Amino acid sequence: MANPSDLAELSTLRSQIAELTARVVKVAESYEKTPDSAIASDLFGAERFLVNAQRAIDRAAAALT
After folding, report:
1. Which of 44, 64, 57 is nearest to 17 (CA)?
2. Which of 9, 17, 19, 38 is the most buried (most CB within 10 A)?
3. What values do phi and psi take at 36, rounded to 5?
4. What is the pTM of this model?
5. Cα–Cα distance between 36 and 11 in angstroms, integer?
6. Do residues 6 and 64 lie in contact, with contact meaning Cβ atoms separated by under 8 Å?
């Protein structure tokens, strides 16, 4: 049986990751069509990692319910 506070913590983490992802994408998009497009590429890579982290948290939360 999952501890309700663990599920709440995972929910909070999921929300924070979603916010970070949106912020990273916003910065990445600002560099997408510039001479510094390599920065955008790195940031979009970071976005993929954050999305995967969010999915992992979703799986963990589902396993606890």
Report:
1. 57
2. 17
3. -95, 35
4. 0.86
5. 35
6. yes
